[in-house]
Design goal:
Layout: H1 4-25, H2 32-54, H3 60-84, H4 89-113, H5 122-140, H6 146-194
Helix pairs in contact: 1-2, 1-3, 2-3, 2-5, 3-4, 3-5, 4-6, 5-6
Length: 195
């Protein structure tokens, strides 16, 4: 059971190109096959999280693969929808910039603080769930008006930005703690030298 969550995460990453093919080869208004792939990916995400917690099967690799699979699939879905509905171009750009900033922040924390990349916070998880339902809605109701589409995606992006703000607050707190610890260590070393 220890490796099952990682297998599911890799499987979800492999579903990304499958979604793209299903989306662009289905000429119907409702992208049934793409929708099925996306829902299946979402269910695999829930399953690997459940197994990891229930059987204490969490791993360093899993902490990278799981969010990577989520972000790749979500961004791919947004990009595919944006190609057919250019009105969502701004949403794809905001989502991409937010993920890049969070990725850089996580790597900096890992390098500077020598700690693991912080897991998603509650707002981040809520943002992922909302994005999922918005994308499912846009896939199923392909003929929604631009106004309704903009409202739905704006709500998802808004929660995403709130998640980024919460993450940024946590990042600043960790970095201040690291800086304070470094100053204290330098002070102790200076005193030891003087003694």
């Amino acid at each position: 059971m220890k490796i099952v969550p990682n297998i599911l995460s890799v499987f979800r990453i492999c579903l990304v190109p499958v979604f793209v093919v299903a989306y662009f080869t289905d000429e119907r208004d409702i992208k049934y096959y793409a929708l099925l792939v996306y829902v299946f990916a979402g269910l695999s995400d829930l399953l690997d999280g459940f197994i990891a917690r229930k059987y204490n099967a969490q791993s360093k690799m899993g902490k990278v693969l799981d969010p990577l699979g989520d972000k790749l699939m979500t961004f791919t879905v947004i990009v595919c929808i944006t190609i057919t509905r250019p009105i969502l171009l701004w949403a794809a750009l905001v989502f991409f910039i937010k993920e890049v900033l969070m990725g850089i922040g996580g790597l900096v924390i890992h390098k500077k603080a020598q700690i693991e990349i912080p897991p998603s916070n509650l707002v981040g998880k809520a943002s992922t769930v909302l994005f999922f339902f918005v994308c499912v809605t846009l896939l199923f109701f392909n003929n929604l008006s631009n106004v309704i589409t903009s409202i739905l995606i704006s709500a998802a992006i808004g929660l995403t930005l709130i998640a980024l703000a919460v993450y940024l607050k946590s990042y600043i707190k960790i970095m201040r703690s690291v800086s304070k610890t470094a100053d204290e260590n330098n002070f102790i070393e200076e005193n030891n030298k003087n003694d």
